[in-house]
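Archive record
______________

***
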Amino acid sequence: MRTVVAIYTGQGLADPLKAVFQEVLPGVRLVNIIDDSLIGDINKAGHIPPGVARRLVQYYRHAEEIGADVILNTCSSVGEVADLARSLIGVPIVKIDDTMTAKAAASYDRIAVLATLPSTLEPTMRLVQKQAERAGREVKLVNGLAEGAFAALVSGKPEEHDRLLLETALRTAADADVLVLAQGSMARMEKKLAEATGKPVFSSPRLGVEHVKAVLDAL
């Protein structure tokens, strides 16, 4: 049986992602490593502190020791740490948002990136830009920061989170051809946002797991 170890910096995505794995990769052993202090430390610092990067690399090493065939990095805020860690870890590391951002960059000229945290928005926008450069394309990036939405969510106000995210989507949709959801936990809003804006909306969980499947199939 193949093993995938998923690394989380917060609690919200583990159960939804488990459901996607059961559908896309039902025969795979899924092991979760969750440390929600990581996103807290990133938000407090406004960037990725060295201690967070060190802990993440340790978790990648733990995943290797567990017997992972593939490591899934589930947090867009730390994707650049995953890029650097690939040279240190002997197991493929898949970033959950790689396929989503590549798909958007390859097909659309104006791309709105929606996020509830600057620490997630900025690296995701950089990733979209890199994907566009790899594809030899020029794209316009639209900032879709839903200010206050993350605070509402962690305060137990999911309806307020969803309202702020919807308002941000409607505001940015006029200047965009596609909306990209920077955080996997926002995937449950994908259909609602698409219906409200009339624009394509991409989220990362299913595309990320399909990427894992492709890597496993190639091993």
In short: The chain has two domains: 3-96+206-218, 98-203.
